[in-house]
Write a structure and sequence with these properties.
Helices cover about 35% and strands about 10% of the residues. By secondary structure, the chain is of the alpha/beta class. The chain folds into two domains: about 375 residues, TIM Barrel (Alpha-Beta Barrel), CATH 3.20.20.300; about 180 residues, 3-Layer(aba) Sandwich (Rossmann fold), CATH 3.40.50.1700. The protein is globular and about 75 Å long.
Length: about 600
Amino acid sequence: MLGQKIILDFRYFCEDNTPSSHCRTPMTVIPASLLNVLSTHNIGGVILFSENIQNTEQLITLNYTMQQHMVKAGRQPLFIAVDQEGGRVARLPSEMLSPFAGNMAIGATFHQRGSAFAQSVASHIGQALLPLGINTNFAPSVDVNSEPKNPVINVRSFSEKPEQVAALGLAFVSAMQSTGVMSAIKHFPGHGDTHVDSHSGLPQVTHTEAQAMEGDILPFANIINSATPPAMVMSAHIQYPSLDDTTIIDKHGMSQIVPATLSKKILSNLLRNQLGYQGLIVTDALDMAGITQFFSHEEALVSAFSAGADIALMPFTIRNQDDIKKFALLLDNAARRVSESAFLRASHNRILKAKQRFALQNFLSQPMSWWLNEAKENASMDNHNSLKNRGIEVEKALSKSSVTVLYGKDKLPITTSRWLALMPDAARCLAFEAALTRPRFTDTNKPLEFACLPLTALPETQLAINLLKQADVLVVGNISPLHANYELGGFDLPEHITRRASENDVMAFSKKIMRTAKTQSKTVIFTPLRMPYKAQDVKELADVAIATFSYAVNITKQSDKANQQVTSYSLNALADVLMGNALVEGRSPVSLN
């Protein structure tokens, strides 16, 4: 029963027993030693990350191998899960599944399209995941983003309005589960009003209980009590004193307010009893700093189960053979502390019931070759009705419908052909240039004069000022918080760049050039590609602010990097609005101030 209550990650694994902290070998083919871990301990599931995914054939083979092994060993089929929210949280590569523009972009379409995009995006994600052998999606985030400086939720939220989050979250869950993929809404009781990332610390929400019920908890309550409740609810590593101010002693001997993940009042009393949730409660990853800074692996695991969690996600990191032995010891110790009880049996039964309801065993009802052929058909670019092509059309439509003018609409359209852009990196420079030079924008009488400076490492101020003199309009693209190095696409960070510019340095440089542009009577466009709130910080320096809520780019891979093409549906939509080729449809689901 204890093993069924655990979902493990095998992001990296080193069979040569490289020390765990240094192991960075992606696990794309599961070795016998890890298969043995799954069957010996009757593990309930596995979560996959981008490191585990190379291509369609490899992914289906990996998932089929794990499921087949469990069934042959007389065990239950596995939950095979991913975090495929869409937007900036997407584990599958874009060539396998469109990332879409994300939840806040969907929220920007709500006033015109209602729940249509939540439904179509979730349906497409589910239809893509299931044939690959993925039966569980830790999505959507139904956190109400009420903190502009929230570093971890932000554009992952549909809106700052609880009712809107509830409506879009419900449509997402319903569409996802109609495809046969389990949905997990997160992060209960609400991670939206935090300025600390629970991956790196332990945030605290100071709302009153009444505020909690009317705000953060309302989307969870509405979705749970709908006709299509989610298969799972994921807990948050946050302190919420108005819901539980119990203090516990951490591993350093210090008193801490119990985080929601380990709180019986929040998971059992509130979620299970008061809200009447009958499905599975899964923890957020227990290897996050919000937990590991304060609690041992054993204490976190036992406390989460005691609080009412059905499933512990990633309670221990397995990276080598030594870790396999340590994990076995952890389970032995936990088993001695978690006695068999009515609660444990009920939790175990909920897990088995969910696996039966969503027919996890059906993935093995067809041979692997059948699934490979099915996946090829879904991805066929020759077939205009293929799943991949339908996803691209949804992605284009969402980008077009969500782009939002935050202020300065009267200054549009831009008619000049002389542009200077400051973009977060070289890939976004290439994508924006491609957006402006599409065939419909080409005017033989007015050839485009375009320059773009990537801000990965700050250029010389004088260089930017010299280029500005030759332009009529300055466009500043901003990603805040900064995106990760792997999202750069490999187009910058050459050897001579030893350090990326910080977010503060990028903003200071951008403001300096914007200020210079204003003194020269240039038109200044500020476009937050992630946090729309940033537009308020530069209102005195910008004539126009346009939010895209997405910074995703598509890279057509070539052996010769110089010939690689970089495009972006969100930057295409931005260019359409700037040039007056499209009506502005979006409306920001969060207020700037």
